Amino acid sequence: MNHGLRTKAVLVVDDFQNMRSTIKRMLQSIGVDDVDLSANGRDALGQMAKRRYDIVFCDYNLGEGPDGQQVLEEAKHHRLIGVATLFVMITAENTKEMVMGAVECRPDDYLTKPFTKDLLKKRLERLLQKKQQFRAIEEAIDGKELQKAIALCDAAISVGPRNVNELLRVKAGLLIDVGSLEKAEAICQQVLAQRSMPWAHYALARIRYLGKNYPEASDILEGLLEEHGTHTESYDLLAECLLRQGMDKEAQEVLASAVRLSPRAIQRQEALGKLASKNEDYSTAESAFRRAVGLGHHSVHRSAEHYTRLAKVQLHSASGREAAKTLKRLRKDFSGDESAMLQAAITESDVHKESGNEELAKKSFADAVALYERIDEALPIEATIEMGKQFIAFGDKEKGLALIQDVVRNHHESEEVRAIAQAAFKNTDYEDEGNRLINDAHREVAKLNNKGVSLFQEGNIDESISLFTKAAEKLPGNCVVNLNAALVMLKKLKATGGGDAAPMGDIRRYLDRVEKIDPKNRTYLELRKAYDSIC
Question: From CA 344, how far away is CA 365, in angstroms rounded?
């Protein structure tokens, strides 16, 4: 009997009572005493919120409500399972759609029914051994201590374990995340010299992508996909590389291939829908957004934008009635969510205008304005730009242009945001003026940022701090400005040996803003570590 298993708390999730009982008996027979049972995904998430489990066995198909993939996604998103938790997906099916969906959400293992007690015991022992080896590394990653995680990888590799390839994969990824691209490439080349490993090719493509060598990154990824056609991450990165080269239609084809391979990936369906809309392929866009809406019903990734984008695409297909139905469903599914109601009202105004009903269009816009003035939270970028466009359309040109300019200022380094803003003015009377204002907003923030950096480099620390802190208050959504504000304040604190409460509070506020927008930003991770070290 395995005494290590006796201390483990286990949750078994399956919609069939007989299967739950069978797995429980198997677990008890191999030494597991603490076993809870759950009949559906929603109940399982509730149980995980109440106590921390060491091991979760979850069936993929759970009947009504979240499926196993959605349970795992939500558990990770809300941190209901820790880095030490084993999550094992179980299913009686082996369809490509189901298998790829399960693999993409990255469970620790995957069991196909039926399985024996001996197989269960063998898998558990192997998984627990591996989890124990990686536990400290995962905890360091979870705590955003990436340099510590790299050092722990080195220590584990020096022992020469069976999992050395996995350790090298993790270390290479961490080196990329902290910006040590040459060291990461050395690992990839070392591994590839011995054996063609998909992760090493993919990491090498990431390195080329970050170095803005998009053609070479594309070549690596295309070669990888020829050999390993189910490596879904490669499709996503290849599409991004093609977009960077202005090959929008080719990028759409790549995403479409990935969606055919793994249709349950909601965020990829969204990406395909957005790109197809940009390419004016409204049939593909409608299909992708419709699937995103359906997949989102029980998903933590559900978004009101999936509904509004679907409605807009339906308008392009001259289907105002279908668009109206989509918005009605949005209101039902997001009842009580004022941000979603605002997005619905903005889009509904377009639906009424398209059908020639100006009075109803005005009423919907008035509803949107009332909600906009009441809501404190930031709207999604596209919805904010649409709101600005509506202000212009209904006669408040100054407010509309200012709103769109503000979005560009807060995302001055994003080419995608500028493209969305420019698209809002396309084929309107304000196209030239709008594009000029967008470019002015971009240059204004870039100039301000460069000035602040120059002041800092010249030793004018206080002036640099003053400039960046004022800019950060005006641009709370601009990651670059907020990071620079935090950076110069941290530099001064380190130079003076101080840890005053007031500047520390400001630094924390700037870093928290960035964490909400881009939690994996390398500069953010470095500054958060520096901040934590002097708290």
Answer: 10
Burial class from Cβ neighbours inside 10 Å (0-12, 13-18, 19+) for residue 182 reads exposed
Is there a single domain that holds both residue 26 and residue 13?
yes
Evaluate whether residue 342 is within a structural domain: no
pLDDT at 352 over 60: yes
- pLDDT tens, 84-108? 789 999 887 666 676 676 677 788 8
In a domain, 39, yes or no: yes
Q: Domain residues for 181?
A: 145-228
| 164 shares a domain with 134 | no
- pLDDT tier, 3 (very low <50, low <70, confident <90, very high otherwise): very low
Please state, in angstroms and rounded to a whole number, the distance separating the CA atoms of residues 481 and 270: 29
Listed residues 115, 142, 169: the one ending a domain: 142
pLDDT above 90 for 238: yes
Whole-number Cα distances in Å, 344 to 308, 327, 392, 440, 486: 7, 6, 18, 31, 37
| Chain segment 434-484, per-residue pLDDT in tens | 889 888 888 989 899 999 999 989 989 899 999 999 999 989 889 999 999
**Quick one: which of 164, 201, 202, 203 has its CA closest to 181?**
203
Let me know: does 34 contact 10? Beta carbons within 8 Å: yes
Residues forming beta bridges with residue 9, ordered by sequence position: 34
Q: Which of 204, 228, 252 is the last residue of a domain?
A: 228
306 lies in some domain:
no
Q: Are residues 196 and 96 in the same domain?
A: no
Regarding whether 120 and 171 lie in a shared domain, the answer is no
Dihedral (Cα; 358, 361, 362, 368), 10-degree rounding: -170
Is-contact 234 225, C-beta < 8 A?
yes
Would the pLDDT of 1 be above 50?
A: no
Provide the number of structural domains found in the chain: 3
Q: For the whole prediction, is pTM greater than 0.90?
A: no
Q: Retrieve residue 414's tokens.
A: 């994003």
